[in-house]
Amino acid sequence: MEYRSLGRSGVKVAPLALGTGNFADPTSEDEANCIIHRAIDAGINLIDTGNSYSNGESERIIGRVLAKGNRRHEVILATKVFYKVGPGPNDEDLSRLHIIRACEDSLRRLQTDYIDLYQLHRPSPSIPVDETLGALTDLIQQGKVRYIGSSVHPAWKIMEAIMVSELKGYARLVCEQPPYNLLDRRIENEIVPMCQTYGLGLITWSPLAQGVLVGRYSSATELPTDSRGALRGGIYSERITQPGIEVGNRMIALAKEHGISPAQLATLWVKDQPGITAPIIGPRTLEHLEHLLPVLDMTLSDELAKACDRLVPPGSAVASFFNSATWMKHRVI
Q1: Annotated catalytic residue, options 3, 53, 118, 170
Q2: Which of 15, 143, 198, 324 is deepest in the core (most CB within 10 A)?
Q3: Mind listing the domains of the chain with CATH numbers?
Q4: pLDDT of 231-254, one tens digit each?
């Protein structure tokens, strides 16, 4: 397996990252323990979480597992800050006050002295980027954070942050974490070339398009009762579209023609796209993880890449996975 550089940093990460959004909801701690240890044993070294996942329980589970197994030093631990985590007016957003409080809370839950990659979960609509970057720089100088990144930011906000960092000597973003899968390829228009030009890594989420690319849904209106779209509703059900389901069915047939599973093809397609550092896989079970581990050593053929381009042309979308971003006006056809 060939490790990849995380942007301009000196950090090397595996070409797949472990996402933990399912931990505690619905994945049990025992199952999460097995998933984490198996992923590390397989060479995956970036574990991604967020302080808002399952009200902080995802971080707590990771902290307990890594501490008990004495494996903290083997991983690049990434978490996030932005979403509301308490009842107060300062318990959200990207102010200096909230960032420092949230970092301290994440450190306690993760049972660690430092966070390898601290990410801005969403861009702030009101807090000046100077204040945000100043707080993050202080955390780095205090040894509580090693690197910083963004998540679901528009290209202009990332560039603004880079410019302010250069002008004021603040810490510089090393990566962006957007949604990316065959159903929503819009990051190819601006975000991918911008990251390639300015040396940012791309750690992308939802390679399976919330299960649409593996046949989880047969209808955009009648969702399986145990599916994420049905259980969580809202932005999750909005991502399930009939055109997306039709593309998913065609991708499933394509995978079968080439002797791999739909989940492997969907993940492999993201992993081997230009500019991508690593897609985040979020297995609910150990079995799901085992099924995707072979992708670490696979290579997407030109034939398969062109066949996928015929399903959804580069830069376009048949479903919106940016629908949790208030800045993105999503209209897909």
Answers
A1: 53
A2: 15
A3: 4-311 (3.20.20.100)
A4: 677 888 899 999 999 999 999 999
